[in-house]
Amino acid sequence: MTKKAMISGITGQDGSYLAEFLLNKGYEVHGLIRRTSLFNTARILHLFEEPTKTDRRLHLHYAEMADSSTLARLVHRIAPDEIYNLAAQSHVKVSFDMPEFTGDVVGIGALRLLEAIRETEIDTRFYQASSSELYGKVVEVPQTETTPFYPRSPYAVAKLYAYWMTVNYREAYNLFACNGILFNHESPRRGETFVTRKITRGLAQICAGQRSKIHLGNLDAKRDWGYAADYVRGMWMMLQADRPDDYVLATGKTHSVREFLQLCCRVVNLDPARVVEIDPRYFRPTEVDILLGDPTKAKEELGWSTEVDFEGLARIMMSSDLAAVGIDPRDFDLAEAEPAVVLGQQD
Question: Which distant-in-sequence residues (6+ apart) come within 8 Å of 198 by Cβ?
Fold first, then answer.
């Protein structure tokens, strides 16, 4: 029998890769999308282009993470075998400007889905998208599943609430519920306000003569960066395990924003000193200096590992953003890659 999955946040970076992954495995996929005055499905449009393969198994439903009655109704009606909660206001800087909204969508939103599962009593497996931002002001390096949390933003605090609610519902109600503590994972589908995509998109536009500078914040922040397509595979693997648990997904290597910038500039023959300006507006009120994950548990228990390294990630993203501005990536000795998604106000 065909398995059914429900994905909140299907129009986001991870949601689009996960939907693609599940459809290729033969799933029937139900995605929750927000009703807006602008189209917000740019990242999943390609899934409707091969009708005999995907779109008959891909269904979209309007829902809001703040609307518990709609979430419960959809959970009951769809009765999915697997639920992936990826919906979030996920921009850390924005969470300082909109802390209440972030807490409601990210924290209480996860609770609403867990309650829908409990009240409808459907037999499902639940994945909660946790974040390396939980570690914040890190107390040890690298970070593992047992490292104490120290969140440093409203977004991270909301994710912490969702994390512990997932653990609580697993223990209190015997739900198959897992937390995936994912470290930074990027792609050509990353939102254009996130630093890696700001860099690759901005450098591509400079190469095309569309702008002269890009403006960035703290170049010394260090992150454990991987490729999003690798990480959604890990989400799925968690829900195929014999028992529910929480897992870190990471590369086990850390690089600074400056390193990512320098690598991308080298790829397209630009001098970072000439094309970058530091703008204080992009500094956080409380900074997270270094995140470095230890994925040993996921590797040993799930058999998960990454396939794309740091340099490969930068080249994939640069290739796509160059193509998006009309430059053949092969002009810079780059292979063709997946298309970047131009989001603008839709993101």
Answer: 192, 214, 216
Question: Is the separation of the CB atoms in 217 and 96 below 8 Å?
Answer: no
Q: State in Å, rounded, how far the first CA of the chain is from the last one.
A: 35
Task: Fill in the amino acid letter for 310.
Answer: F
Structure-token match 């990512």, residue found? 260
Cα distances (Å, whole numbers) of residue 167 to 40, 82, 178, 183, 244:
32, 17, 8, 19, 10
Cα–Cα distance, 40 to 87 (Å, whole number): 13
| Helix/strand/coil percentages in the chain, nearest 5 | 45, 15, 40
CA angle 240, 55, 189 (to 5 degrees): 70
pLDDT category at 54 given cuts 50, 70, 90 is: low
User: What is the sign of the dihedral through the CA atoms of 242, 246, 252 and 256?
Assistant: positive
Within the chain, strands assigned E span 4-8, 28-33, 58-62, 82-85, 125-131, 176-182, 185-186, 214-216, 222-223, 226-227, 247-249, 255-256, 276-278
CB atoms within 10 A of CB 155: 26
CA distance 153 to 166: 20
Residue type at 62 in one-letter notation: Y
CA 280 vs CA 98, 150, 219, 284, 289: distances in Å = 19, 24, 11, 9, 16
pLDDT digit string, tens, across residues 182-215: 999 999 999 998 999 999 999 999 999 999 999 9
Q: What is the pTM of this model?
A: 0.93
Give the tens place of pLDDT for each residue, 85-139.
999 998 888 899 999 999 999 999 999 999 999 999 999 999 999 999 999 999 9
Q: Are 219 and 261 in contact (CB under 8 A)?
A: yes
153/158 Cα distance (integer angstroms):
9
SS3 276: strand
